[in-house]
Q: What sequence folds into this?
């Protein structure tokens, strides 16, 4: 089931999310809904707070090629164990901040640990776009948005655009 995505500014996007203690069928269904919502948007990542659920859950799939096999990942309680000193700059966007993009510098490689949908502990190293995406989504679980990396004036400008967008959406 496709879920509505919260648009910044929304107080739920700035909250610290609670760890998942028990991976239930309801949470697996939530993860499936999040993947459906992400693909429909279309996006490459989605965090639970973006649909108003304050649990430590993210989904991502950075496979973009039409002839490539999708690789949807569901991560409960994802945690960065290590990150490279080398940095990458990607132009990031966010489904909660539609049509706004900015260059953000992040570690180019990260090692991440998480629980999969069956409760198994997984660990994997990510590089390139995958590394950027997983860091962006984990930030959401800590109440941080990609615009928080920008200079205050740019961040305020984007926030004002989102406030205007929300007013326009409320009228329709």
A:
């Amino acid at each position: 089931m496709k879920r509505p995505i919260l648009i910044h500014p929304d107080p739920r996007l700035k909250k610290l999310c609670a760890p998942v203690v028990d991976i239930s069928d309801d949470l697996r269904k939530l993860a499936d809904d999040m993947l459906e919502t992400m693909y429909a948007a279309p996006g490459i990542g989605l965090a639970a707070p973006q649909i108003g659920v304050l649990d430590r859950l993210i989904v991502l799939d950075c496979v973009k090629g039409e002839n490539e096999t999708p690789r949807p990942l569901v991560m409960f309680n994802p945690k960065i164990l290590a990150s490279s000193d080398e940095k990458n700059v990607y132009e990031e966007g966010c489904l909660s901040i539609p049509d706004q993009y900015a260059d953000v510098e992040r570690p180019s490689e990260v090692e991440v640990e998480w629980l999969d949908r069956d409760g198994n502990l997984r660990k994997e190293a990510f590089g390139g776009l995958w590394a950027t995406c997983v860091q962006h989504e984990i930030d959401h679980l800590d109440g941080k948005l990609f615009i928080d990396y920008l200079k205050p004036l740019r961040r305020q400008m984007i926030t004002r655009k989102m406030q205007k967008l929300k007013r326009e959406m409320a009228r329709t």
Q: What stands out?
A: The chain has one domain: 11-171. The radius of gyration is 16 Å. The mean pLDDT is 96.
